[in-house]
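seq:
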Amino acid sequence: MKKRGRYPKEFKIEAVRLLKEGGRPASELAMQLGVKRTLLYRWKDETTEKGPNAFGGSGRPKSDQLSEITKLKQELKEVKEERDIFKKTAAYFVKDPR
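struct:
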């Protein structure tokens, strides 16, 4: 199985520029650059969608960030449960006693 390639941001930007110029077919350009044609189109879509923020590299968060995210998700879950309890309690006391 072939290992996934990682390409620098500058390489991707230049490849998209060459693709947009339209001087040669995408399949030929992809062959010269050593990438798949579909990858060129994916890079083009990303630059169109994100503009100058394309290829930021979201990646997987670091382990300390991951634990912080997990902790915050748990805290959010607890706060939502408390909110729901308060809503039900308030609705109970607001009911018309008639």
